[in-house]
Amino acid sequence: MRVRSLKTAIGTGVTAAALVLTGLVGSPADAQSNPFERGPAPTASSLRARSGPYATTSTSVSGAAVSGFGGGRIYYPTTTSDGTFGGVVLAPGFTAYASTYAGLAERVASHGFVVFAIDTNTTGDLPPSRGDQMLRALDYLVQNSSVRSRVDASRLAVAGHSMGGGGTLEAANDRPSLQAAVPLQPWHSTKSWSNIDVPTMIIGAESDSIAAVSSHSERFYTSLNADETAYVELNGESHMAAATNPDDQAYAMVSWLKRFVDDDTRYESMLCPPPSSSDYSEWRNTCPGPGGGGTPPTTTPPPTDECEWWEWWC
Q: How many angstroms separate the CA atoms of 156 and 213, rounded?
């Protein structure tokens, strides 16, 4: 079963609660018909916990052993009894390494994913190069890695922080067969991504002074034309939220990956309607219900100036 769209699964004008009552969401029959469902039903507390239901381990990938990217570390569930898992490549930001995001990578893996936190060829690589490297890393993960037998090559996603978030947009634009994309506090000089068809959740940070949401995350989100999109803004968080691994970010990211990589409709209630929490200064999406309906945030794009591209130094 592949139910990619929240709208298809829920139906316009029908609430998720009503579907649960009629047995159309979260029923035993639904679980049996979805071979990709992994782990117990989610709760708000389980998504904010520092680890999910799966014990994990990891393995290092040397940059000398791969081509097209810089190696990294793969985090994955230790069990083989649940079959294969969806794969996620996680790209670092400017000057950062895979190890910067170890906590986030392990956390996502513990919910039933194989997560490849990668290093880039150089720490200064720009977003277009990072996007290419992410796709090379995905191909390596499913074709040549030591854990390839644990990964379902038909269920792949990309995520990344800062310039890695910009690379995430590039990768999603270049490979529409991906199941999900989650740019984290993304940075890119290109503001329009109208050709992306991949379900995309952009997670910005309210107090980000490097990739300010008004000139990055919000502008990227308003440009998206994909059927399924979301914009989440972390209340009070800074540009380094992906590295500090806050619980509110994990709640949103894991829910999106579970819904679109695993087709797990149990996570729809985590996304639609948006959670009522002071952790988020804004949450918008394309699903039915309060805050949804495909209405993007209304923003006035700031003028483009020579400082924007070099804002790391401005």
A: 27
CA angle 195, 222, 171 (to 5 degrees): 40
Check residue 71 and give its pLDDT.
Answer: 98
Name the residues annotated as catalytic: 162, 208, 239
- Sequence-distant (≥ 6) Cβ neighbours of residue 248 within 8 angstroms: 48, 234, 235, 237, 277, 279, 280
Gap between the Cα atoms of 269 and 44, Å rounded: 10
- Contact assessment for residue 137 and residue 120, using Cβ atoms and an 8 Å cutoff: no
pLDDT tens-digit readout, 54-88: 999 999 999 999 999 999 999 999 999 999 999 99
Q: What is the pTM of this model?
A: 0.85
Nearest to 208 by CA among 238, 169, 172: 238
* 249 vs 309, more confident: 249
Angular region, 65: left φ>0, alpha ψ -120 to 50, beta rest: alpha
Residue spans per domain, the chain: 6-309
66/146 Cα distance (integer angstroms): 12
Domain 6-309 has CATH 3.50.90.10: no
- Using DSSP bridges, classify how beta strands 180-184 and 85-91 pair: parallel, antiparallel or unpaired: unpaired
